[in-house]
Design goal:
Blueprint: H1 5-16, H2 22-29, H3 33-45, E1 65-73, H4 79-86, E2 92-97, E3 104-110, H5 113-124, E4 129-136
Antiparallel strand pairs: 1-3, 1-4, 2-3
Length: 152
């Protein structure tokens, strides 16, 4: 699917505010509301836009402690096996296969250090995990939910 500059701008506007009306977006990209709707429908049908969601501030629900955990896995552990295992842990907010020494990088959020330690212990108990290395987040410097350049 070809994505032009207008599509990119629509995507950026939806990332900034998924509740923006088609009319508001149309004003910003010089299209009518029905034209914006057709483009959004096309982007959704093509899988470019996979859905719309609410972004919840973790601190507001009490999950203020976070860490990144490098997982080192046994032998021929597949990405599918890692993915299936980490999905069972509610503290996991992201997981990625990576290059370098580690096999995967897991992003955890927890209520406090004790909760984080429990989550780490459960994660390390997965049968394929041979070792792990954790880094606790002190502060967030940049966080962006979208792709590409931001809108202005």
């Amino acid at each position: 699917m070809q994505i032009d500059a207008v599509d990119q701008r629509i995507i950026a506007l939806l990332v900034a505010d998924a509740r923006a009306s088609y009319a508001d977006i149309g004003t910003r990209v010089s299209l009518s509301a029905p034209a914006v709707k057709r483009r959004v429908d096309r982007l959704r049908a093509a899988g470019v836009i996979r859905g719309f969601t609410a972004i919840v501030d973790p601190a507001s629900v009490g999950w203020t402690t976070e860490a990144f955990v490098e997982l080192f896995c046994a032998g021929r552990t597949t990405p599918a096996q890692i993915g299936a295992a980490v999905r069972r842990h509610p503290e996991v907010v992201g997981a990625y296969t990576v290059s370098g020494e580690a096999d995967a990088l897991v992003h955890l959020r927890a209520a406090d250090i004790a909760h984080l330690e429990q989550a780490l212990e459960r994660l390390r108990a997965e049968g394929f995990v041979t070792s792990s290395r954790s880094t606790i987040v002190l502060s967030r410097l940049v966080e962006s939910p979208g792709v590409g350049p931001s809108i202005s």
